[in-house]
Design brief:
With 180 residues, the protein is mainly α. It has 2 domains: 83 residues; 51 residues. Helices cover 71% and strands 0% of the residues. It is elongated and about 120 Å long. The N and C termini lie far apart (127 Å).
């Protein structure tokens, strides 16, 4: 028995190599014209690509040369637009009649007064809450001594809320103090 090595390999790469070798063998020394034809064809394709690149490069240069002029036009148009906006704004400012804005100013003044009264009422309410809080702290019972077991400690009484006033709150703090 002869010791031969066997190996499993894919056939496709070997077939591609065989075809390539056949093509190379077909370019024999006897037929150098076919090799030169292929080389000339490759040079022609390369020259066509170079020509197309040169044409597209020239077209790009032409388009790029147009950009500065168009930018100048854009800048000029923007300046005209800004001048137009400024002129229209100035004409509107000059044409404003104080009588037109008078109702708006009056409404704003009314809103300011309403806000002031609300702020005063809020201040009075805060003072009442502070006073109520102080009263509640005074009415709470003191804690039992620590030596008494927890089960025997008395629960503090639940504070009773005073009834809410039926009249609206006065506008300022002095009126609140007069009510007491």
């Amino acid at each position: 028995m002869v010791d031969e090595e066997f190996e499993i390999i894919p056939v496709n790469p070997i077939r591609r190599l065989e075809k390539r070798i056949e093509r190379l063998e077909s370019y024999s020394v006897e037929d150098p014209k076919s090799i030169f034809k292929d080389i000339i064809e490759i040079v022609r394709m390369n020259q066509q690509i170079v020509d197309e690149m040169a044409k597209s490069n020239d077209a790009l240069r032409v388009e790029l040369s147009k950009i500065p002029g168009k930018l100048e036009e854009l800048i000029t148009d923007m300046r005209q637009l800004i001048a137009f906006i400024k002129a229209s704004g100035e004409s509107e400012q000059v044409g404003l009649d104080p009588n037109i804005m008078k109702p708006v100013v009056e409404k704003l003044e009314d809103l300011v007064q309403v806000n002031k009264t609300l702020a005063d009422k809020n201040d009075a309410m805060m003072e009442l809450f502070d006073e109520l809080n102080k009263r509640l702290k005074r009415t709470t019972t003191p804690q039992p001594p620590a030596n008494i077991p927890v089960l025997q400690q008395a629960k503090p009484p639940i504070p009773v809320r005073p009834p809410l006033p039926s009249q609206p709150l006065p506008n300022n703090v002095n009126a609140q103090k007069q009510l007491r």
